[in-house]
Amino acid sequence: MNRAFITFLIAIFAVPYSFAGEPPEWFYKAIKVSNANELAYFIEMNDSCPFTKDEVNKIAEGVLIRSRIKPLKEEIFVSGRIYLRLGISCVKWNDSSQVFSINSEFGRYIPEPGIIFDYSFGFIGIGSKDYIEQNFKSSTESAVTAFMKANFNL
User: Which of 22, 28, 64, 118 could be bridged to 71 by S-S, CB 3.0 to 4.6 A?
Assistant: First the structure.
């Protein structure tokens, strides 16, 4: 990516932006499942990020396990299954910082077409590896909290 594009991103997102707010009622109904003790998920990230997919996977699994939810890594291809898509995009800004976008979204696998529910738990910002990982964890926790609220009447 060229420097002008990165400068444009910074101009738009000079202040970190978190997708905030309470999910709408329809969203909770959409992610209600019969077995809330497990959740399928998968991670999408680009090669520009300053960490490996395994490092990010450990963060996601940790959030799920601490919530007493069995992580079903990449087991999304079951008809009707609710899953969590965890996406990270990074663009190198300088030696110690990245421009990044994190999106955590629920979907339901239905062969042709799959459905992504139009409510994202995410974060956009600029920062170091630790800062990105911290916000990835926070985004994942927000999504898992919504899943628990929908399924455990919290």
Answer: 64
